[in-house]
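Researcher: Here's my situation. A collaborator sent me these components and asked whether they could plausibly form a single complex. I don't have experimental data yet, so a predicted model of the whole assembly would be a useful starting point for our discussion.
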Amino acid sequence: MDSIDKIAYQADENVVISARGLGFRRGERWIFRGLDLTVRKGEFIALVGPSGAGKTTLLSCLCGLLQPQEGEVWVRPNAVANPQQPRACRRHFGIIFQSLNLISNADLLTNVQCGRLGRYGFLRTLLGFPGNESCEAYQLLADLGVGADPYKWVSEMSGGEQQRVAIARALFQSPALYFADEPVSNLDTYYAGRVLGLLRQQASQLGRSVCCVLHDPSLISRWADRTIALHPDDPSAWRMRDVRPQAKELQGAGL
Amino acid sequence: MSDSNPQEKSRPLSSDPMPRPHLPSLPKRPWYERLNALNMTLLIFLLAVVFSGFFVSGSGRSVNVIENLSRFAQDFFPPDWSVLDRTAAALLETVVIAILATFFAIVVSLVLAVGAAQNLAPSWVVISIRMGLNMIRTVPSLIWAVIAVVAVGANAVAGVIALTFYSIGYLGKFFSESFESMNMDVARSLRGIGADPLQAFQYGIWPHARPMIWSHSIWMLEYNIRSASIIGYVGAGGLGLQLHAYQEYGQYDRFATVLICILVVVTSLDFLSEWIRRRIKRRTDRNLSH
């Protein structure tokens, strides 16, 4: 680890989260190794690569759900609270899971409001959530087209609707960092654009950051600033690419 | 539109099979891989059934089973309905004992079950709580009733205490097994976005465990009504005192009245619990109909 490098990225006010020399191993097989990634405020980073390349694993390492065997993840104290207190840190991480992980035996509104569990103590949420916020949660549901009946159970919704509920939960949480694992995999073109547009807006207008696993190249070039591509066979063959300038040129050319 | 491009036509159509130089053959599975825990359990149980058959034998005398039973059954009919009002009062006491005992047992068991679930508590807590629950279960309800009668005297309070302890042994085990069968992903993901352990339990595990918890609790209530009619034999309130007296004096027609009353209560409770379970299940399974 180069200490000068460390000082450099920690001095940069805009760096929210930074991974240095990250390596994760399942059994004997390294998923990725020596991976460096720096996420700044307002950035939208797309994680790409074929199935089994380790995109979800990388995302889990970044948001602290998995412990990497090598390297470290540094989280800016001012941007994302104090990393010495894991709970205070984690509530600034909004995660949209690939398997959604919604509470299927609870209504949509409760699920969305669970996004803010980290802000309150146990006693505050023991008998329900603060009532003045439920309207905000409902508006997010309506915004994503699942507001028809906010008291329906999640188990009564279709897959695409459940995915939008999971996205609403993350948006309601309003975290400093979004980790989204294929957030639009079950959505039609309209809602895919709408969801990514909302995430892009969170980044560009509110200075939050987005790390998002995406497959569709047209969506990547439209919404992402940078991509990090993982290789399924070679753990150290990851590479970073800027995609935003190219997209701007295309827009300038009238495409 | 596609006609305008001559190159499009020369491509192989999808009906042309692609040349496949090598097709993998399905790998054979060795027979011993089928010996998983479930199949082994079945095998061992069947062996146990066969061996148990050798150890059980009757008295060896020739007995007229039909005559014995019919002589006994004749004493029960017709039931003597004159004791119905006395039975109803005792039945009410029985139900009250069962309801209170089940309530106290649910409250205590929920706390104990969290500690006895391997996915929620450290292993030393799990082992010690399970040992305690096993010890509670070892003691039959009638013995609990004797202990309670010794402690607080021959009344309904003794019945409540006895059945509470007895039920904790079962509900603690059932509840902890319900918690262990839960998918931990939701709770873990809530922890991942900042929820504390209690919040993760309340919102990540409890909604999924709740149908099973209620189902077990209703079963326990039904079981307690049956138990509560026995513990009166040793003086812990309820129908048991009557049953004991009628049995002692050979008044089996009155005994039959009491049994029929218990049957009515237990059967209606069974219908009620079945209805509730179906309602719960219908709501949780509705996503399958999509």
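Model: Some features of this prediction you could bring to your collaborator: The CA atoms of residues 115 and 227 of chain A lie 27 Å apart. The mean pLDDT of chain A is 85.
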